[in-house]
Amino acid sequence: MQLFDSPRWFLIGTLALAGNAVSQTTVQIPDNLTSLGTCNVLPFGPQPNVNQIYQTLLTKAQLGNTAGTIEKIGFAACGAGTHSFTSLTITMDHFSGTSGLSATFAANLSSQAKTVFQGDHYAHPLKDQWNDITLTQPFAWDPSKGDLVIEIRVVGSSYSDPNTQESGFHRSTTLPIVAIGYDPEDPVPTTGYGLDQGLKIQITFAAESSDPMAELIDAVEAFVEDQTLSSFQGALLTTELASAQAYIDADQPNAARLQLQIFQFTVTLYVYFNVLSPAQGATLTDGAQAVIDSL
């Protein structure tokens, strides 16, 4: 879901320039052996089918059982090149099933599934190394909501190197997937084949910010993501925070404090009208107070 972009991304961009973040966290599943494992053309093709659907399941334990925002995924290429597509779509969701992936693709995704990437190519210049895809929409993963399911759909795949033996990516023998390839004239399949041949994958979590303003904007976004707040309600709060940040940047701490107090008042109204619970309201008002205390 797209979230009131202009104020939020202005604010996040401003915070990023401040340089208050620590290093990113990466997780390699099932291992970091990027030159080992049979090369698999699922899900990027182009052989034997130029259209493919692929879903893989990563468990909470594999991801470290700690909540975070996923901003990149990477695969270990068997060769250096570029895959081009009519379309490449990547979707992520929390998986609440108890018996693994269903053979029916739609059964593995909920109404909260989020499209995290749409593009027309995947460049992987590094052979036998991780090659990242930067998500156009980062995904907030929370282990309390379930494991992570990733769906990749490609239409019209082609490869830059005629040596299609190197068009694949190193796979494991343990990661469960449901996948299928199909030709352009075929109807889009609704089911796939279950295999334990998922590609080795690297997940990159966004750097944790030590800036209380960044933590506060993330908290607002989380309430919009889970539909506690509507996009309009979230936009109002985010605009107030963007104004406060502008005052901070202009070295006007008193004006920033006043704007943050207005933010706290708005949150109090949301609690009064049962939009937010008292605990949720306290998360935001306490976060605003942390910013005030830092001025």
Could you explain how this protein is built, in words?
The chain folds into two domains: 24-205; 212-294. Helices cover 28% and strands 30% of the residues. The chain is of the alpha+beta class and 295 residues long. The protein has helices at residues 5-18, 212-225, 231-249, 253-272, 278-294, and strands at 25-29, 39-40, 51-58, 68-76, 81-95, 114-124, 130-141, 147-155, 158-159, 169-170, 177-182, 193-195, 201-205.
Task: Detail the topology: elements first, then pairings.
Layout: H1 5-18, E1 25-29, E2 39-40, E3 51-58, E4 68-76, E5 81-95, E6 114-124, E7 130-141, E8 147-155, E9 158-159, E10 169-170, E11 177-182, E12 193-195, E13 201-205, H2 212-225, H3 231-249, H4 253-272, H5 278-294
Antiparallel strand pairs: 1-13, 2-10, 3-8, 3-11, 4-7, 4-13, 5-6, 5-8, 5-9, 11-12
Helix pairs in contact: 1-3, 2-3, 2-5, 3-4, 4-5
Number of E-type strands: 13
Helical fraction equals 25-40%
**What is the overall number of helices?**
5
Shape: elongated
Helix/strand order: HEEEEEEEEEEEEEHHHH
Number of domains: 2
Percentage of residues in strands: 25-35%
Average pLDDT reading: 88
Distance between the termini: 33 Å
Structure classification: alpha+beta
Question: What ranges have pLDDT less than 50 throughout 5 or more consecutive residues?
Answer: 1-22
Whole-angstrom Rg: 22 Å
Largest sheet: 7 strands, antiparallel
